[in-house]
Amino acid sequence: MLPQKLNFKNFITLLLCIFSATLMSQQAFHNFGNVQIHDQGQVGFHLDLINDGTFDQNVGFTGFYNPNGILTVSGNNRPIFHDVEINVSDDLFLEVAMGVSNFQEFVAGYVQTPRATPLVSLDYLNDAPYLGENDDRFVDGYASMTGQLDFTFPIGDDFRLRPMRIEDQAANNTARGAYFFEDPNSPNFFSQNFDTQSFEALLFGISIFEFWDLNGDTETQVTLTWDDNSNIPSLVDDLADLRVVGWDENTGEWINLGNTAISGNIDNGEITSEPFIPDDYIVLTFGSSNRILDGDFEIFTAISPNGDNLNDTFKIQGLVQFPDNEVSIYNRWGVLVYQQKAYHEVQDTPQGFRGISDGRATIAKGEELPVGTYYYVLNISGEKSRAGYLYINR
Fold first, then answer.
1. Helix, strand, or coil (residue 68)
2. Are strands 98-108 and 122-125 parallel, antiparallel or unpaired?
3. How far is the C-alpha of 320 from the C-alpha of 313, rounded, in Å?
4. Cβ–Cβ under 8 Å, residues 267 and 239
5. Which of 18, 171, 361, 367 has the most CB atoms within 10 Å of its CB?
6. Strand, coil or helix: 340
């Protein structure tokens, strides 16, 4: 009888010799047919796995073990395992995507995926959790999530775990991400450069040390993490000025994605963006807010009009110095929902934008606008127009 609890010392390796599955010269387990690990089944791979058949209906336990080298998973078809343990001293290399449907544990070594091929990833299915990740054990490349819960990608690079978190709705249609500890001006695995000197007017500077790739078609807030190698002091003195930024391929510039929550200190912490659709941006990193106008000028890009007198209206600090101004706000379909000249005179009054339509276009006057992301344009006579995202939360 197989043991109920499995570890590296007492693990029993099952040699599966099922129809059309062949063990090739003791170098790899090569599946050409239809293999399944049943409930309570426990299988350990001490050799490479090549999957050219069906190997995705597993409900038992699978371990990958090599105390002195590497292991590789390859083939034409993605294997999917139920419970997975990874204990490979010199890393588990994926040449084909591999799925985990219930639980995964990092014990030793990284999971390496080809960064030039994002679809080859370690795939967490059905909200499968994991544990054991640290600076010595993570996905060095791409991981994906499909499920209904918030998810933190166990990703990193250069011997550093650098997680990225998404909200539950973003995982419904599969979200995929990776971390790159390299200069976005000269990335190694992308066909284009991401010029850190090209950014919208609301930004002041962009990190040259790192970036993330996040793929997904559902709006979400994203939380990025930093450590002392991120050189955050090169961007800001005050963490309140830090922003998540994304590279917009259409405009060829970095866009301010906001700062709705921040924790930690200048050497270690995390920042959460405003909601956005990941597929609208090629990569993400850190930027600093722009105060380039004379005086202390800053645009606050989130409002919560709930009557508590805190962030009830859209505010632009320092705008009084530029009285010839106009603010226009649009919903995500480009419909104008608010417009006001000399906005500095009304921003602290009931006439300031507080998530209520002023009756333009197809939006009825006085109608409370739904929670979500909007787009503002600030025109100042003699200055470059400024535009960006504004989030309404109630």
1. coil
2. parallel
3. 16
4. no
5. 171
6. strand
CA 335/CA 305 separation, integer angstroms = 20
Q: Are 358 and 365 in contact (CB under 8 A)?
A: yes
d(CA 264, CA 226) in angstroms, rounded, equals 9
The Cβ of residue 377 has, within 10 Å, a number of other Cβ atoms equal to 15
Nearest CA among 142, 163, 138 for reference residue 222: 163
The DSSP bridge pattern shows strands 222-226 and 269-272 to be antiparallel
Could you count the other beta carbons within 10 Å of the beta carbon of residue 334?
8
Q: What global pTM score does this model have?
A: 0.71
- Please list, in sequence order, all residues whose beta carbon lies within 8 angstroms of the beta carbon of residue 84, skipping any fewer than 6 positions away: 61, 62, 63, 64, 100, 103, 104, 105
Cα of 83 vs its chain's centroid, Å: 25
Neighbours of 374 (CB within 10 A): 22
- Write out the chain's pLDDT in tens, 394 residues: 233 333 333 333 344 433 334 444 448 999 999 999 999 899 999 999 999 999 999 999 999 999 999 999 999 999 999 999 999 999 999 999 999 999 999 999 999 999 999 999 999 999 999 999 999 999 999 999 999 999 999 999 989 999 999 999 998 889 999 999 999 999 999 999 999 989 887 788 899 999 999 999 999 999 999 999 999 988 888 898 899 999 999 999 999 999 999 999 999 999 999 999 999 999 999 999 854 443 456 788 888 888 777 788 998 888 887 889 999 998 888 889 999 999 999 998 889 999 998 865 545 566 789 988 888 989 888 776 788 888 888 7
SS3 344: helix
Question: What letter would DSSP give residue 14?
Answer: P
Select from 164, 189, 166, 190 the least CA-distant residue to 179: 164
Rounded Cα distance between 279 and 222, Å, is 13
- Residue 238 three-state SS: coil
d(CA 285, CA 107): 29
Q: Label residue 76 exposed, middle or buried (CB < 10 Å: 0-12, 13-18, 19+).
A: exposed
